[in-house]
# Entry
Amino acid sequence: MKKVTVPELCDMKRRGEKIVMVTAYDSATANIIDEAGVDIVLVGDSLGNVIQGLPNTLPVTMDEMIYHTKIVSKGIEHAHLCGDMPFMSYQASKEDAIRNAGRFIKEGGAESIKLETNENYLDTIYAIQKAGIPVMGHIGLCPQSIHITGGYKIQGREIQEAKRLLELAKSTEEAGAFSIVLESIPKELAKKITESINIPTIGIGAGPFCDGQVLVINDLVGLSPDPIPRFVKRYVNLREIMTKAVRDFVDEVREGVFPDVDHSYN
# Structure
């Protein structure tokens, strides 16, 4: 399979082909996702929640993101690789933003970056993409802004907020983003945004009308503990399978069943 590029992703929207994005945080998982035919692998700052056991994404550092992006890149041949700009990697200045985005490309092996977007960062998107780095926007629920929004809440239900998000999506496209993640917004608003811009929209908790969908891999395969968000569909319960496997191992070791002859050297 050929490598998925930014122009190819934009062509997929024009052809009406759905885009699939899944997160990964290590090489082995990235390789499985890649072989399954996913279009984009996102190294999300969600690693703070699902890998580091943190209550939110805010403490995740650039060095941690670069490390995980670098090892994920080793497992990918086909999918497009996008790195997620962590909190305070782009907020202070455009210069910081360009420098840190460049680190994802030079050190991490990423092919684009994603940043949580509001009206204050449109110039930042423009500056990063002018430096030759493709940018994926992210509007709606922005986990790095939970102290402002008051937590993980649906965005865009009120008329004025819906209008703002629609205009923000258009402005994000005009700033040079090649795609936009729409997180936790009403499905009809996501439909209107998707129909109003020429770049792909990738939904998470934004209904079926987006140009693509993304899920966190730990949620998708059932590794995340309850409760899980309403928009998550578990395609398998690996947590249950792994728990049984480890319990079987514990029992066999304690009973002297493992290791047996077949698992020992002469």
Notes: The mean pLDDT is 97.
